[in-house]
Amino acid sequence: MSEARLRRRLAALGCLLALSAPALAQLPPRLTAASAADQLDAARQRLAGQAGTAATAQQLQSLGQALRTTLADRLALPLNALGDRDRGLVLRAHAAARLADDFADAAAGCREGESAAMAQALALSVQRLAQAPAEAKPMQATIERIEAKDQPALFALHASAKPVALALVGSELSDPQCPDPQLTATDANGALLPVQPRITGVTAARVELAWNTGGLEPGAYLLHLRPQHKAFLVGCSAQPEAAVALRLVPQAKFTVSYTLEGSCGGGAPHTVALGKGTLPPLDGYGATVARAVDTSACADPVAYRISASVGYADGANATAGPFEQNADANLTVGLPGGLTLSWDPAVRQLFVRSGAPMCKGIR
After folding, report:
1. Whole-angstrom Cα distance, residue 169 to residue 175?
2. Cα–Cα distance between 4 and 299 in angstroms, integer?
């Protein structure tokens, strides 16, 4: 080989190594028993102070301790160096940590009742992971998240007569050499539901489904996924199931009551009660209701003052105000739960609108 050709090949090899080095550096750290235990510790700390998660935090701590005790001499080994039972322990611990992290991210902006429903789903999911028997099977399916379209980390769902598209995200959820995994929905006690979800797409890390929840009562439900694995001379056989919880909550509905007062009389202002009542309910998000209010009792208004209370479908209530604005300007304020209240003195109309959902863990 000529010296010139040798130099060209060495230069090409150097370029190839330079291009591949950043990609190698960006690979995520491998999952081990030690890293899964650390993830559980971090997730438990994120749950601190979150209402309704104390028992779940304790469960995460127990899972971490079990990992460090059971796999004390194998904490640094990668998954492919562990036996089937031990690999399942690590994957389930990792899934529990991911679920808790997602809950902490999604709970911001949620009302107390919404957070409670999400926390109940999280607790049931983590409990199922912790209580899953250790089986010596080639596949150890785990579900780390339920997703809806454009809305990751779903913990609760408003019951709907229309099928909702969901996805189960996790590890070892299917074997491409075998039929689709078996997917069933049950109540929290394991009783099969009359309407079952339907699988619409499958990969090893994601199972997409459609589910009609219209006839179900609010409460806790479980999605069970049992994959199959193909072995030489044996064919496809059932593997341990993975399960995740989802809470159904009542359809979104808001009822707003109001009190409108006027500060009247330019020289010596005095308060006059102008209106008090309850507006028609707002069904769902993106709805608007209005109420005309007679302000003739305040012939010379200086300012208007509004107080409001909101009732929610889960039975919770919240109050807001009083809010005050000059009589010649519109008043627009936010109410708990993503509602907007507006008073337009020019047309003497009170408007309330339900905007986009504020709680990201509920669809």
Report:
1. 15
2. 98
Q: At residue 89, what is the residue type? A: L
CA–CA distance, 97 with 307 (Å, rounded to integer): 43
Dihedral of CA 192/198/202/205: which sign? negative
Quote the pLDDT of residue 265: 84
Dmax (CA) for the chain in angstroms is: 105
Rounded distance between C-alpha atoms, residue 160 and residue 102, angstroms: 24
Residue 331: which H helix or E strand, with range?
strand 331-335
Of 49, 30, 4, 7, the closest CA to residue 87 belongs to: 30
Distance CA 46, CA 219 (A): 26
Cα 275 from chain centroid?
40
**What single DSSP character describes residue 329?**
S
> pLDDT tens digits for 155-182?
999 877 788 999 999 999 999 999 999 9
Instruction: Give the pLDDT score at 6.
Output: 46
Q: Which residues of the chain have pLDDT under 70?
A: 1-29
- Which pTM does this prediction carry? 0.84
Note the pLDDT of residue 19: 40
User: Residue 29 has what pLDDT?
Assistant: 63
